[in-house]
Structure formats: C-alpha cells, structure tokens
Amino acid sequence: MLEITKNLAIPDAEISISAIRASGPGGQNVNKVATAAHLRFDIAASRALDDDQKLRLIATGDRRITAGGVINIKAQRFRSLEKNREDALARLANLVRAALVIRQPRKKTVPGRREKEKRLAEKMRRAKQKQARGRVSGYED
Fold it and tell me: Domain of 51?
C-alpha cells in the first residue's frame, strides 16, 4: 500500500512497476543492467480514488499524465533498481497529494483610506521629482 494521506492509500495491485534500462552516462553498467523503474498508474481504473479526486488529478495538466488518464513515471536517478522504485513511488505520492489539495479562494480586499493617501502622496512626490528634471533655464550650450 502506498500511503498518500491518513485517509487515502493506493493498493500495490493498482500500481505497475517494471525494470527498464536507464539512459545517459554510466558505461557498461547502464548498458547491461535494467536499473531504472517505469511506474504506471491508471487513474480511471483506480478504486482507491473517488470520482472527484480522479478529476482533480487529471485536471492538473501534468505532462506525466497521458490523454488516457495513465500516470507514467520513469525513475533513473539512482544506480539500484530498489532506490529507483522507491523514488518513483514517492514521486507518484507527491503528485497525487498535490492534486488533492483544495486551494482557498482569494478574498478581495479594498485598500484603506490611509493606504490610498500614502500611495497618492508618493505618486505626487515622484511626479514633482520628474518635473524638476527639465532643462535648466539661463544655461546655454
């Protein structure tokens, strides 16, 4: 079970992890040994998430989520398959956790009278400063 929150956990049966060869530098080890982990999680087929949670997850627009609603994560940061497997699971948990956070709507506020006066006073000061930058009279070039 992959624990997302206190109330939500994804069963291991819903997550598919396979070993693949990693790309990039590493010489003979990278060419011979499949140490990268490829994780697949089908959002639509998941029984752990309710419909609202599935919609929130798909609506994140993350590039790791395919059009069919499958999350693909490739972990190849470490040299061992086990560490890459743990990394992929942690990244899936973070992705789901971030999608399930409900953001509070912003409350519109009106600036107070003192703030308005302060802003206008600063605006007038800057205007006078700029006005004083004109040509100096009585000076000929």
Answer: 2-100
